[in-house]
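Reviewers of the previous submission asked for a worked example of the structure-prediction workflow described in the proposal, so we include one complete record here. The input consisted solely of the amino acid sequence. No template or homolog information was supplied to the procedure at any stage.
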Amino acid sequence: DDEEMAEGGEEYETVVKPYGEYGSECHYCNVSSDGRISYGMQAQKMTVQHYQDLIDRGWRRSGTHLYVPSNKSPTCCCKQYTIRLDVTKFERSKSQNKVISKLKRFISGEDTHNNKE
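From that input alone, the workflow returned the following structure tokens.
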């Protein structure tokens, strides 16, 4: 069943408009104007569960545009891989903490060394 029920008994459904497969410019190697191959669709309405199912299968989102890279295409120049991070287990490294501290000092105006005004 493609419909879910909200707490108040209201039905939610998923409505998408498929674009199909398309090529776009690769910003990694700049070799091809259509070397990055994806399959895309526009989500007009989408349930949380359907969105999660797509994300779990490697789909990505930019606004209402959903797409999945097509690494199997023979014209694909740079393969794209999804990296998942469990944020509950993430621990910042010492160098990441230094960058955060430096940024906080810069924003607060304490770090005048790198300020070129």
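The first helix runs from residue 48 to 56. We consider this example representative of the routine output the project will generate in years two and three.
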